[in-house]
Amino acid sequence: MIEKYQHTKYHVFGLVLILTNIALGQDAVQNFGNLQFHNTASVGFHIDLIDNGTFDQNLGLTGFYSPNQLTVSGTSNPIFNDVEIVTENGLVLNTWIGITNNANFIVGDVITSKTDSGTYLNFIDTAFFTGTGNETHVNGYAGATNKELITFPVGDGQRVRHLTLTSSAINDLAKCAYFFEDPNNPSSLTGQFNTENKEFEDLQVSNFEFWKLESNQPSVVTLAWDSNSNAPSFADSTEDLIVVGWNSTENRWESLGNTGVTGNLTTGIISSETFVPDDYEIITLGGNELLEPFSVLELDNYFLTPNNDGINDFLEIEGIENFPNNYLKIYNRYGILVYSKLNYFNEFNGISNQNTVIRRDASLASGIYFYILTVTDTKQKYQGYMYISE
């Protein structure tokens, strides 16, 4: 049933049912009874869905279609067979919903809270998904019920950051979310995961991103990295890359190993050794001892006045075009990384691209900074200072 306070069972058999604000005369489709879609039914929701009844034995195709943001909420959890998602401003889940066959991402993300894993898009049994990409994925938690193998279609709303879980036994329920945040001071989680607390000194830990993964089965995870992952900041080569996790008992980062890696330091894929995800609060990419032995050479010091007058607006390193395989890191006087760039080519204009001290994309304060330019091909590091003046 679809109208408020009616308690009859509502079935749809092989027809197209379009639920609109005009037809219902209300702002949401509300189920208080027993609603069920049968056989080849095709049903489109163009307004919010509130499920406070029984709505978990559906067949056919259910679609969410709107140029606006749609919301699914209620005290019960709807379970659909095939789902199409065409919501330009996202489909927000305030309760978990299930998929038993195919979730087809066409336009927009599925959005859930990242502060609570109790709300998620749940792929049940043999369910799968199609159409995911940088603008079509789960920005929040995805779940997997009764699966040994699942690739979670998660991301941050700007880009997809899949995680593949390969477990040694069937998971009653596994969940995953991705965070493009510094684990030292995440904005979505209450904990802090100090990247200096680690099982051995030479362990390197990314401070750009992490995944939160829930599973009680021994498993292998497969992660990918891209240019935004800044892999050269924690590994000298792909062979040095590993998966790392924050041990929730020891309160430290630990190596979860590397059983296979492909790609280069810009993009690639890595698989961990076997571990139990529930033993680790979050996981991310890391590496072993970084950039040793490299010769260290002095480079020029620079004076920047990034005021767009055409004079000293950028950090222009003479001859950088001859060393395209490089990595630039800029630190403030406290040793905090404020800028990093793989394959730097004179782009720095006094704007930070880190979230460590100030907001990303903010102008750096006047003062002294130091930089390290690593040239991978020649195994050399160049260092120097710059003064930024407004």
Question: Helix amount, in percent?
Answer: under 10%
Number of domains: 2
Number of helices: 1
What is the CA-atom radius of gyration, in angstroms?
Answer: 25 Å
- Cα separation of the termini: 65 Å
Strand order of the largest sheet: 2-5-7-10-13-16
Stretches where pLDDT is under 50 for at least 5 consecutive residues are 1-25
Principal-axes shape call: elongated
Largest sheet, in brief, is: 6 strands, parallel
- Secondary-structure-based class equals mainly beta
Number of strands: 35
| Mean pLDDT score | 87
Q: Please, could you describe this protein's structure?
A:
The strands form seven sheets. This protein has a six-stranded parallel beta sheet. Strands 3-6-8-11-14-17 form a six-stranded parallel beta sheet, with no helix packed on it. Strands 9-12-15-18-21-23 form a six-stranded mixed beta sheet, with no helix packed on it. The protein is mainly β. It has two domains: 10-287, no CATH class; 295-388, Sandwich (Immunoglobulin-like), CATH 2.60.40. The chain contains one helix and 35 strands. It has one helix spanning 21-24, and strands at 10-13, 16-19, 28-31, 35-38, 42-45, 48-51, 61-66, 70-73, 79-80, 82-87, 91-93, 97-99, 102-107, 110-111, 121-124, 128-130, 138-139, 142-145, 147-152, 163-171, 174-179, 204-205, 210-214, 219-225, 241-247, 252-255, 260-263, 268-271, 280-287, 295-298, 302-304, 326-331, 337-342, 367-375, 380-388. Strand 32 (326-331) and strand 33 form a beta hairpin. The relative contact order is 0.08. The protein is elongated.
